[in-house]
Amino acid sequence: MKAGTAVATVLAAVLATACRPSPKTEEEPEPVALASPPLGEGFTEDFEAATLDKQVWRATSGGYAIENGALRAKNARNRPLWLKRRLVCDVRIDFTAWSDSPDGDIKVEVMGDGASYDPDQGSYESTGYIFIFGGWNNTVSTIVKRDEHRARLVVDERTRVEPGRKYRWSIRFAGSRIEWWIDDSLFLSVDDPQPLCGPGHDHFGINNWAVPVHIDDLSIAPLDPQL
Fold first, then answer.
1. Which of 123, 157, 127 is nearest to 139 (CA)?
2. What is the CATH number for 110?
């Protein structure tokens, strides 16, 4: 074989290998959709299907599954399950949540970008607000703006999550006002003069660090700004 032909053959083999797509691991996030459909008149999810609908949900980890007619989250390590619907600025989000662990640690994200996640289990900074019930070994409940360690807007250090107890949450955004209701009682509220909303801040996500928690009977609808 001539030297030039040999070089060309080797080069072609290298290029073919480089262009071949690498296998996708189970933990890789799904590709981001080009656009999420608008919320419209509302959204409901009862988690009665056998598996999560990939046209509706974007999982950034393998820590989410449907179990006994509810969503179970475990060991997601701050890699959320994002809803592929664009929220409006004034919105109400209702669902039932419970934890199997005495550590509590139930949390969701609102007004996030619908794609971000913690890539290295380091210091996670959200793209929206985080609502944490019984975080840090069931010692703190808080509404956080982006950084759960340094930007807690309001805090409760008295309430403890009871393992196995089902709590009905209602999160309400109206203008600068944010309210978090639990079992029909106002739990935490805050006024944010610079609320996150609009492109990049218009998705709902269910998040989790380690302990097994459950979400069920989710409903999301536009809210009258007067609350």
1. 157
2. 2.60.120.560
